[in-house]
Amino acid sequence: MPITPVADLVRAAKGQITTLSLEDARAEADAGRALLVDIRDVRELAKTGRIPGALHAPRGMLEFWVDPESPYHKPDFATDKRIVLFCASAWRSALAAKTLQDMGVENVAEMDGGFSAWKDAGLPVEQA
């Protein structure tokens, strides 16, 4: 049996999650209503920079950091703020947002276009 292409998984996830525009994600974060969470690999941050104030949570640890029963739980995720995930181009973040929804996280979204779109729009970036 052939595997399901990742593009199909991403498309299906995007049909079931909330996607915020760059402007809306930034406005919610600036207003204190959202926690921007960068799920890219640490090497990506070092190479391309990061969004000031965004929490870094590597994709491989995200579920463990979110789960309050996990020994790896991070208190940053015990929040009433909307968790807005982003990666480089909004593929990993779509899958991650769907996974968090499946875990029962209700206030989660992804940022449209990811870090690449943020940087291309000239929005603030700092070197990691």
Q: Would you give an account of this structure?
A:
The structure is a single chain. This protein is about 40% helix and about 15% strand. It has six helices and five strands; from the N terminus they run H-E-H-E-H-E-H-E-H-E-H. The mean pLDDT is about 95. It is an alpha/beta fold and about 130 residues long. The chain has a five-stranded parallel β-sheet with strand order 1-5-4-2-3, sandwiched between helices. This is Rhodanese-related sulfurtransferase. GO terms for molecular function: thiosulfate-cyanide sulfurtransferase activity.
At CATH level 2, the architecture is 3-Layer(aba) Sandwich
Approximate strand percentage: 5-15%
Q: From the alpha carbons, calculate the radius of gyration and give it in angstroms.
A: 14 Å
Which stretches of 5+ consecutive residues score pLDDT under 50? Answer: none
**CATH class placement:** Alpha Beta
CATH level-four homologous superfamily name: Rhodanese-like domain
In N-to-C order, the SSE pattern is: HEHEHEHEHEH
* Sheet with the most strands, sense and barrel status: 5 strands, parallel
Range of helix content? 25-40%
CATH topology: Oxidized Rhodanese, domain 1
How many individual β-strands?
5
Distance between the termini: 42 Å
What overall geometry do the principal axes of the alpha carbons give?
globular
Q: Average the pLDDT over all residues and give the rounded result.
A: 97
Number of domains: 1
Structural class: alpha/beta
Instruction: Note the total helix count.
Output: 6
Adjacency order of strands in the biggest sheet: 1-5-4-2-3
